[in-house]
């Protein structure tokens, strides 16, 4: 009685170059845990992307349009600055394999040292998505392979348009 209701929001950052069913699975599962999930399409000017920023934003919007409590936005600075400016205290990160954990752990510790209230929640991917990566999808698509098992139709269409296939 008399307990305050807490509005919980989390951020799921990534380059999403492109968004895959693995990403979408994590977003769907996170949307059941948090009141709001912010999918943050990061713009890293030191990284070469296959898809332009607006293309990535469009694909993410289309791919998660069925989830009512998801917001898509962008950021080009430090994740901790975005979290601080938007009152976000939880970062969602997906783990496909043990090899992902070391890098993700380092990032989580660095973020926590810069913003002590920021927690990182690691979610394991579903087994069926455990091998999917954006780089694998890009490589298979570039050789004309079928990527429809790993990405939504909007991403497949974007590859066709971009590659002229």
Automatic annotation (TrEMBL):
GO terms for cellular component: cytoplasm. Pfam families: CTP_transf_like. Belongs to the bacterial CoaD family. Reversibly transfers an adenylyl group from ATP to 4'-phosphopantetheine, yielding dephospho-CoA (dPCoA) and pyrophosphate. ATP binds at residues 15-16, 23, 94-96, 104, 129-135. Its EC number is 2.7.7.3. InterPro entries: Cyt_trans-like, PPAT, Rossmann-like_a/b/a_fold. One of its GO terms (molecular function) is pantetheine-phosphate adenylyltransferase activity. Its cofactor is Mg(2+). This is Phosphopantetheine adenylyltransferase. The lineage of its organism: Bacteria, Thermotogati, Thermotogota, Thermotogae, Kosmotogales. Pathway: Cofactor biosynthesis; coenzyme A biosynthesis; CoA from (R)-pantothenate: step 4/5. HAMAP family: PPAT_bact. It catalyses: (R)-4'-phosphopantetheine + ATP + H(+) = 3'-dephospho-CoA + diphosphate. It comes from the Bacteria. The record marks 23 as: Transition state stabilizer. The keyword Nucleotidyltransferase applies. Keywords: ATP-binding, Coenzyme A biosynthesis, Cytoplasm, Magnesium, Nucleotide-binding, Nucleotidyltransferase, Transferase. It is an enzyme of class 2 (transferase).
């Amino acid at each position: 009685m008399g307990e305050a209701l807490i509005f919980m929001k989390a951020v799921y950052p990534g380059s999403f170059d492109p968004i895959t069913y693995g990403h979408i699975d994590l977003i769907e599962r996170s949307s059941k845990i948090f009141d709001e999930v912010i999918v943050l399409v990061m713009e890293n000017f030191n990284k070469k992307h296959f898809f332009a920023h607006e293309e990535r934003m469009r694909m993410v919007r289309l791919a998660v349009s069925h989830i009512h409590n998801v917001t898509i936005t962008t950021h080009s600075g430090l994740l901790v600055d975005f979290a601080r400016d938007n009152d976000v205290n939880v970062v969602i990160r997906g783990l496909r394999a043990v090899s992902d954990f070391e890098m993700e752990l380092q990032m989580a510790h660095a973020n926590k040292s810069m913003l002590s209230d920021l927690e990182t929640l690691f979610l394991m991917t579903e087994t069926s998505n455990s091998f999917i990566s954006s780089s694998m999808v890009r490589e298979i698509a570039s050789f004309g392979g079928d990527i429809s098992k790993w990405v939504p139709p909007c991403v497949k269409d974007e590859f066709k348009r971009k590659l002229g296939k």
